[in-house]
Amino acid sequence: MDPERLTRKIEDAVRHCGALMRGADRERAFVEQKEGHGNFVTFYDRQNQEYLKETLTGLLPGAVFVGEEEDVHGDILKGFSFVADPIDGTMNFIRDYRESAVSVALLQDAVPVIGVVYNPYLDEMFTAAAGMGARMNGKRIRVSGRPLRESVVLFGTSPYYEALTALSFRVAEAYCRNGLDIRRSGSAALDLCDIAMGRAEIFFEMRLSPWDYAAGSLIVREAGGQVTQADLSPLCFTAPCSVFARGSGIRDGERPAEILKTLGNA
Q1: How many CB atoms lie within 10 A of CB 245?
Q2: Per-domain residue ranges for the chain?
Q3: How far, in whole angstroms, is CA 64 from its chain's centroid?
Q4: pLDDT tens for residues 84-139?
Q5: Homologous superfamily of 3-140 in CATH?
Q6: I want to staple 218 with a disulfide (CB 3.0 to 4.6 A). Which of 7, 115, 149, 167 is the partner?
Q7: 141 touches 218 (CB < 8 A)
Q8: CB–CB of 106/80 below 8 Å?
Q9: Each residue of 216-231: pLDDT tens digit?
Q10: What is the phi/psi pair of residue 14, to 5°?
C-alpha cells in the first residue's frame, strides 16, 4: 500500500461527494428522522455513502467499510477498514448552513493510518497519513501552542444523548470563563481540522461515534496535537466515546473533568 497514492485516490472520492453536496436540491433531499433527538438522514447522505463504499473498497480489496448510514458495521479489529461519514453535519447541510464535510479514515487493526476530511464549501481538503504529517490543500499545517487563557474552545453538545446536555454546557461555561471564547459548529470533523490548523486550541464532545472523529483525530495528531477521550484514555474506534482534542499549549490538567472544578461543581 502506497499511502500517498491511496490518499490521493480517497481525495478524489470525497471531492466527488462534495460536488454532490454543493449541487444539492434541498426540495428533493428526502429528509428522514433517525433514532435520537435531531438525528436526520437525507438522500444525499445515502447517495454519498453508496458511492464511497463502492469506490473505497475498490481501491483496497478486502477492506471492511463502516459508514454512518448503514445498519450493520463490519469488524475493524483485524486488517484494513474504511470508516466514513458521508456528510458530517447533516443538520447544517439540511439548513444550507455550509458547515458540513465528508470524512474518510483508513484504519489498520483499528488504528487510523490515513485521514481525509473535505469541506466542499470552502474547498478545504485536510489530509494526513501516519508518520507523514498533516496538510490542508497540500500545505503542512500545525496546531496552536497558545495556553488555555488565550484559547478558543470548540465543542459539541452530543445532541443524540440528551443525558449529556447539562454536563456539556457546564464544561463549555468553565472553558469560556478560563479561555477567550467558545464556538459550536455542528461538525466534529471540521472542528478537529480547525484544531489541526491552529484556528482553535481545544475541542471536546462527551460522546461521538467513530466516523465522526476517525479521520480528524489522525489529522490533529499529525499536526502535532493530542486527541484522547475526556479522561485522557485512548480513543475507541469500535464504539462511541468522548473526544478531547488540543493544541500543544494545553496541559493534561486542563481536561474537561479538571476544568469543571473552576466552577466548583465538578
Answers
A1: 30
A2: 3-140, 148-263
A3: 20
A4: 999 999 999 999 999 999 999 999 999 999 999 999 999 999 999 999 999 999 99
A5: Fructose-1,6-Bisphosphatase, subunit A, domain 1 (3.30.540.10)
A6: 115
A7: no
A8: yes
A9: 999 999 999 999 999 9
A10: -75, -30
